[in-house]
Design brief:
Layout lengths: L3 E7 L3 H12 L4 E5 L13 E3 L3 H11 L3 H8 E7 L9 E6 L1 H13 L4 E5 L2 E7 L2 E7 L4 E9 L8 E4 L2 E4 L11 H7 L5 E12 L9 E3 L22 E5 L2 H9 L22 H7 L7 E6 L6 E8 L4 H8 L10 E3 L2 E7 L17 E3 L9 H19 L13 H11 L24 H4 L1 H7 L4 H23 L1 E2 L13 E2 H6 L8 H8 L5 H12 L1 H18 L17 H10 L4 H5 L6 H12 L1
Parallel strand pairs: 1-2, 1-9, 2-6, 9-19
Antiparallel strand pairs: 3-5, 4-5, 7-8, 8-9, 10-11, 10-18, 12-16, 12-17, 12-18, 13-14, 14-15, 15-16, 20-21
C-alpha cells in the first residue's frame, strides 16, 4: 500500500471492479479499497448476468473495454437470448453464472492488473478541502491521498438487514456495513435517502422434487456477450420453473403483521419491478399464483436460488410458505431470505460524468446513485473511472448520448429524473431502441471506444472490418439477384434482389447464415447479419435518425453550470425549483426533467440567447 494514488475506488462490487480496472488500464495509479478481498465481485443476489436491456449494457461495456462480458462468457453455465419471438430491438442476452468461478475470475484479473493495488480495509471518511477531494481515511485513521475518488459502496452505507422483527447492521449477510462516509457527506450538504432491496432463500438441491417442476433450458446455439470470446461452447445446465399456490398466499397474508415491510420498520423504498413475495400478493391480489425460477448457483451446486421469492418475513413463515409450493414440500434451507436497506444519494447531485456537483474529484457509481442490478452498477463504475482519468489528463468529459447507448439512457435518466425507488434498466426506457440493439454495440460505439483507449487494437480492427463490410453489403444486397434456384427454398416467379426479398420478409432471420455461405463467403457472418437488419428495418431506422437529428439541436445548446435560474421571473415556480435542483447541462436534458413544461424551455432558450 502506497500513501498516494491518482484514483481511489471504494467498494469491491461490480461497479468497483470495472472502475478499478478502467482506471488502471488508462495508466492511473489506482487503489481499490474493499472490506473483504474474497468478496470482490460477489453475486450477492441473483446468480446471473444480463436480461432485458441489462444484456445491452453488458455488450456496450464489453465493446468499450470493460470486463463483465468476458467474465460471464468464461464462467456462465446457461445462455439464452430473450425475446426472440419479438423484433430485434428488444432481443436481450442473459446467462446463468457459476457465481464462484465468476468472482474468482474477476479477482484474478484484478490481482494481475498493472497500476492497481487492492487494500483490504474499511474506508471511514474522506479528506475534503475547499470542496475538493484529497484522500480517504481508513478505519485506523491512516490517510491515503489521491486526486480523485469513486464511491461504489453498494448496499453497505449504513446497511441494515431485516428478517421479521430481527434487525442486523450489515452490508450483506455476514459482512459489516460501512459507517462514517454517509454521515460525512450529509454534513457536507448532500441529500441522502434510504432504499431497500432483498434476496430470497437458498435451498438444497436434494430436497427439490423436480418431477413437479417445468424444465427451463438455455439456447442450443448460445451467443457470447463479448466479441473477444473464441471457441464458445458453454454448458447448458437447466433451471426449473415452479409456481406458488393460493395456500402459499394465505400463509403469507396471515403474517403481514410480522413483516417489517408493513409494520414500518423498513424506511427504504423497494424496487417496483422486483418486489418481495409478500409485496406481490398484496399488489397483485387477483393472481392465484406467481412464477418461481429455481437456479443452481454454480456448476454442480447443491445450493439453489429461489428466484421470485425474495422476502423479509420471519424465518418460520418463509419456511412454511415455501414448503407449500408444489415441488418444494420438503425444501431444506441453506440460507434464509432477507431485506436490506441502505443509504443512497439522489442522483440529481451528480453530473453526467458521474462527478458530484458539490465536491470536485468525487464520483458516485452504482447503488449509491439509486440504481439496482450488477449491470447498471458495472457500467457506471466504468464511466466514472474513464471520466476521473480524463479529468486528471485535462481532457473533456466522456459522455454517451441517449441515441448512442443504453449507458447514455441510464446516466441521462439518473441526472434528469428523480429516483424515489431503485432504478432498473428496461428497453422501454430507450426511445431510440431500434438503433440501440444488443447486436450492433460494436458499430455504434466504435468511435467512442477509440476515444477512450482501453480496448485492444485487434478488437478495434475487427469492429472496423464489420463496419466497412456492412456498408459494402448494403449496396451489394440491392444489386445481387436471387433466382428461382436459391438456397432459401423461396418460390419465385422471376429474379429478385436480396434487398427486396428481405423487405418482403421472404429472406428471414433464419436465412442469414445461408445468405453468407452462398452469396458472400468472403464476408464475416456478423457483417452479413448487420446488413440484413439494416435492410429489413431501413425505413424505421431512418425515421429514428431523423428524430435524433432534431433532438441533437437541443442537446447542442449547452447551459453554463453556474447559470442563475433565480433571476428568470417568467419561469414557473416548479420549473425554477427543478432547474436549481438538477442544474442540467443542455436544453435537451432540461426538457426531460419531470415537471418542466414546454413554456419553461422556451423561456430558458430566450434567456440563453441573450
Amino acid at each position: 500500500m502506497k500513501k498516494s494514488y491518482d484514483i481511489i475506488v471504494v467498494g469491491g462490487g461490480h461497479a468497483g471492479v470495472e472502475a478499478a480496472l478502467a482506471s488502471a488500464r488508462l495508466g492511473k495509479s489506482t487503489a481499490l479499497i474493499t472490506i473483504e478481498k474474497s468478496a470482490i465481485a460477489r453475486m450477492s443476489c441473483n446468480p446471473s448476468i444480463g436480461g432485458l436491456a441489462k444484456g445491452h449494457l453488458v455488450c456496450e461495456l464489453d465493446v468499450l473495454g470493460g470486463e463483465m462480458g468476458k467474465a460471464i462468457d468464461a464462467t456462465g453455465i446457461q445462455f439464452k437470448l430473450l425475446n426472440r419471438s419479438k423484433g430485434r430491438a428488444v432481443w436481450s442476452p442473459r446467462a446463468q453464472a457459476d457465481k464462484i468461478k465468476y468472482e474468482r475470475y474477476m479477482q484474478d484479473v484484478l490481482e494481475n492488473q498493472a497500476n492497481l493495488d487492492i487494500i483490504e480495509s474499511d474506508a471511514r471518511a474522506l479528506e475534503i478541502q475547499e470542496n475538493e477531494f484529497r484522500g480517504v481515511y481508513l478505519y485506523n485513521n491512516t490517510l491515503i491521498k489521491a486526486k480523485a475518488c469513486i464511491l461504489t459502496n453498494g448496499t453497505f452505507l449504513k446497511g441494515k438487514i431485516h428478517i421479521g422483527n430481527v434487525q442486523i447492521p450489515a452490508g450483506r449477510y455476514g459482512e459489516l456495513p460501512s459507517i462514517g462516509i454517509s454521515d460525512q457527506l450529509k454534513e457536507l450538504g448532500f441529500s441522502v435517502g434510504r432504499l431497500k432491496t432483498g434476496t430470497p432463500s437458498r435451498i438444497s438441491k436434494r430436497s427439490i422434487d423436480f418431477t413437479n417442476l417445468q424444465i427451463q433450458e438455455g439456447d442450443k446455439d448460445p451467443r457470447a456477450f463479448s466479441h473477444s470470446t473464441r471457441n464458445f461452447d458453454p454448458p447448458n445446465i437447466p433451471c426449473w420453473l415452479a409456481y406458488t399456490c393460493e395456500h402459499t398466499h394465505e400463509i403469507l397474508r396471515s403474517a403481514l403483521d410480522r413483516s417489517p415491510l408493513y409494520t414500518g420498520k423498513i424506511d427504504g423504498v423497494g424496487p417496483r419491478y422486483c418486489p418481495s413475495i409478500e409485496d406481490k400478493i398484496v399488489r397483485f391480489s387477483d393472481k392465484t399464483q406467481h412464477q418461481l425460477f429455481l437456479e443452481p448457483e454454480w456448476d454442480g451446486s447443491s445450493q439453489w436460488y429461489v428466484n421470485g421469492f425474495s422476502s423479509s418475513l420471519p424465518i418460520d413463515i418463509q419456511i412454511k410458505a415455501l414448503r407449500s409450493v408444489p415441488g418444494l414440500e420438503n425444501a431444506e434451507f441453506i440460507k434464509i431470505g432477507y431485506a436490506i436497506e441502505y443509504d443512497y444519494f439522489p442522483s440529481y447531485q451528480i453530473r453526467r460524468s458521474l462527478e458530484t456537483k458539490r465536491i470536485s474529484g468525487l464520483y458516485f457509481a452504482g447503488q449509491i446513485n439509486g440504481t439496482s442490478g450488477y449491470e447498471e452498477a458495472a457500467t457506471q463504475g466504468f464511466v466514472a473511472a474513464v471520466n476521473a482519468a480524463r479529468k486528471l489528463d485535462g481532457a473533456n468529459d466522456f459522455i454517451l448520448e441517449r441515441h448512442e447507448a443504453y449507458i447514455g439512457v441510464l446516466i441521462d435518466d439518473l441526472c434528469s429524473k428523480e429516483t424515489s425507488e431503485p432504478y432498473r434498466m428496461f428497453t422501454s426506457l430507450a426511445e431510440y431502441r431500434l438503433l440501440l440493439r444488443w447486436d450492433n454495440a460494436h458499430l455504434r460505439l466504435l468511435d467512442a471506444t477509440k476515444k477512450i483507449g482501453i480496448q485492444k487494437s485487434d478488437m478495434i480492427d475487427l469492429f472496423e472490418r464489420v463496419k466497412r463490410e456492412t456498408y459494402i453489403l448494403n449496396t451489394k444486397f440491392s444489386k445481387t439477384r436471387v433466382t428461382t434456384d436459391n438456397p432459401f427454398n423461396i418460390p419465385l416467379g422471376s429474379t429478385s434482389s436480396i434487398s427486396l426479398l428481405i423487405r418482403q420478409q421472404k429472406i428471414t432471420e433464419n436465412n442469414v447464415m445461408a445468405l453468407q455461405k452462398h452469396y458472400f463467403p468472403d464476408y464475416l457472418l456478423d457483417s452479413v447479419d448487420q446488413a440484413y437488419v439494416q435492410t429489413r428495418y431501413e425505413g424505421y431506422i431512418d425515421r429514428q435518425f431523423k428524430q435524433v437529428k432534431k433532438m441533437n439541436q437541443l442537446e447542442a445548446k449547452g447551459i453554463p453550470h453556474n447559470f442563475n435560474y433565480s433571476k428568470i421571473t417568467s419561469l414557473s415556480n416548479e420549473g425554477r425549483e427543478k432547474f436549481l435542483k438538477f442544474k442540467p447541462d443542455t436544453i435537451g436534458q432540461a426538457s426531460r426533467i419531470r415537471g418542466i413544461s414546454p413554456a419553461d424551455i422556451q423561456v430558458l432558450l430566450i434567456f440563453l440567447s441573450k
